[in-house]
Design goal:
The chain has 194 residues and is mainly α. It contains eight helices and no strands.
C-alpha cells in the first residue's frame, strides 16, 4: 500500500518560502522603522527581492504583517538571552540584552499604534510575548546574581518596568541615546551595595 502524500497544510514550508518570509519580515521591520507602520507594501516586496504576490501570500493584510514583525522581534529578543548568556560574562550579557530590549521597544513604539488601530484586541498580541521576555530576563538576572555581579534583591521585572517606562516617552531624536544611558544607570544601580 502506498503512503499517502501529506495534505498541503501538513507539509513543511519549502526552504525558499521560509527564506522569503524571513527576508520579508526583516525588510518590513526596517521599513516600519524608517517610514512608520504604513510603509508601502510594494516597496517592502521590492526591497525583499520578491513580487507583491509573494508578500500577499505570506501576509495577506497589513495587520498580519505588523503582527508577524512584532512577534518575530520578540522571539529574537527572547532567543538573544540564551545566546548572550552562552558568550558573555553575566553582567555583560544582561547589559547587551537590555540594549537589545531598547531596540525592540523602539520597534514596538512604531508598530503599536497601527496594531491598536487594526487588530481587534491588540493586548493579546502583546501579552503573547510577555512570558518569553520575562523568562529571558529572569534567567539573565539569576545568572548575574549567582556570580555576585548583581544585588540579590533585584527583581528582574523592575528592569523591564524601567525600560517600558521609557517606551511611553515619545520617540525623538535623542530617544535611543537616552534609553541606552538608562541601561547603564540600571546596571550600575543593580550592582551589589558596598
Amino acid at each position: 500500500m502506498r503512503a499517502r502524500a501529506p495534505a498541503p497544510r501538513d507539509r513543511k514550508p519549502r526552504a525558499d518560502a521560509l527564506r522569503n518570509r524571513e527576508r520579508l519580515l526583516e525588510v518590513a521591520r526596517e521599513e516600519f522603522t524608517r517610514s512608520g507602520a504604513h510603509a508601502s507594501y510594494e516597496e517592502i516586496a521590492k526591497k525583499a527581492g520578491v513580487g507583491p504576490g509573494t508578500l500577499y501570500r505570506h501576509f495577506p493584510t497589513r495587520e498580519s504583517l505588523l503582527v508577524a514583525v512584532y512577534r518575530s522581534e520578540m522571539e529574537k529578543l527572547a532567543a538573544a538571552a540564551r545566546t548572550l548568556a552562552g558568550t558573555l560574562p553575566p553582567v555583560e550579557a544582561l547589559r547587551a540584552w537590555l540594549l537589545s530590549f531598547v531596540d525592540a521597544v523602539e520597534t514596538k513604539q512604531l508598530i503599536a499604534p497601527a496594531l491598536n488601530a487594526l487588530v481587534g484586541d491588540p493586548k493579546k498580541v502583546f501579552e503573547a510575548s510577555y512570558a518569553p521576555i520575562h523568562e529571558a530576563i529572569r534567567a539573565l538576572v539569576k545568572r548575574a546574581i549567582e556570580t555576585g555581579d548583581i544585588r540579590k534583591d533585584l527583581d528582574p521585572v523592575d528592569l523591564l518596568r524601567a525600560l517600558v517606562g521609557v517606551a511611553n516617552v515619545p520617540v525623538g531624536s535623542d530617544w535611543r541615546r537616552s534609553a541606552r544611558r538608562l541601561v547603564e544607570i540600571l546596571i550600575r544601580g543593580a550592582r551589589p551595595l558596598k
